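Changelog note: in this version the structure field was regenerated for every chain. One regenerated record is shown below for reference.
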Amino acid sequence: MFNEKMSRRRFLSHAGKAALGGGLLYAVGGTVIKPRSVLGSKDKKEAEKKMPGVEGDLWKQYAGTKLIFMSENTPPSYAIKERANEFKELTGMEIEIRQDVLSTVQEKVGIDLKGGTGGYQLNYAQDKPMTTMFADYQADLFKFIGDDTLPQEPEGYDVDKWGYRWLDVTGFFYNKDRLVAFPYDNAIAIMFYRQDLFEKYAGKFEAKFGYPLEYTDDTTWKQVLDFMKFFNGKDVPEIEYGFGFQGLEGWAGQLDFQRVFFAHGQWEEWSFDDPFIGARDPGPCHWGDDQSIKNLYTLRELYKYAHPESLSWNWAGVNTAYQTSKVAMCVNYGEFAATVEDPEQSQAAGGRTAYGLDPKGEPSWIVNGGQAVNGTNYGIGGIAINGNLSEDMQRAAYIFAVYATSAEIQKSVLKGLGGTPTRMSVLTDPEVVKAMKRPTTMPNALTYPPSLVGVEPPHVVPGPKIPKWNEYSVLQCVECSKCVAGKQSPEQTASILKKRLDQMHGV
């Protein structure tokens, strides 16, 4: 069932919508489409094979239409781009996948949505950098779910069909009146570490630090600090530094800092009624409290012993550093396992890498009485439909959204380029579960055991979902980076952030 606030009456009211007539032509964004909801199809049986449970004529009702999907350059989009001909055979529609770095996608999609145009019928709805700003401009998917004149995924779209509250994170913003995106792929932060070096130097480490060189679910950030100090020394010639962060200004840095903060007492910047939904007006922030100041001291100490380029790295930068033996450990997103495990690209391949939960908070570094957890965050890329489109063009776009988020396509993508599926049926598929252990033909699946533990309570930290997320993330990264670099004290940093963020939200 959908969560109780999902306007179930509204959801059901759209089921069984009458078929549209076929006599009118619509020109939308330079594409001419002819609505046809009931068509004879010679390829019905073939369509059934490709997407079980759906009549082929429903897939082909908008044959001749061209759709453009503006996406970040992620594994699922690369994989579906390779299936463009297959999609055209199934639907008669052309799909053009345009990909770029997230900042460019954000800019182009923002202009399109806010400008009232329909240049991109579908867009990559990354939960915080994108949809916190653009949710009001996306089409409401409740209009189409359950509509028997459209193809539907046989599994359905209820919350239990996805990972823990992934539909909430991707699809609902500030309330549950409208569903604006389906979960498309999920990058979950986990620990990558050189197990071969941990084993090789276990004796030397224990002689120096008095406990085993092991990484477990209970390893704390204080112990990771010891690991950094050990690997930074001359005892381990195979590696340059023990640890690499991804503190680059923007989303990479915000996520990097957030993991450390939340691990210690589950500290967050704001209090929300439901952090998975967020709030338009978050109220006063928590910067300046004792735990925030303590967290900044912790962060500064960790960065002191990390690779000196850490403040210039994002997820791609730290992945390159890990693969080229610049660092022995890093927290990064599971989708990078595919390249880490590729011996042609990586010095950490061949069983040298192990994957674990993010580090746990150090109890002695918690001053707010909160819990020490394995602070884990993620970025769920959704797929959304431009709300400026005509009803028929939205329906045509919905057909692609159904296709792209189907269980069959997600499993196919995993077998190819990787990524993290969002449907639980794929994550629990016996073939995928088997691939979670070596030897495997799906290297990204090696990361799923810690990933799926980390994205559930008490470890998961989803937010903050606020309309001014981008302004907040830049401000926080700039000030935290100054603190880490020794340009201002933790107390000064917390005070500046408290003042600026409260001013930003009219407090």
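Spot check on this record: The chain has two domains: 8-186+380-433, 188-378+459-504. Residues 313 and 428 are 33 Å apart (CA to CA).
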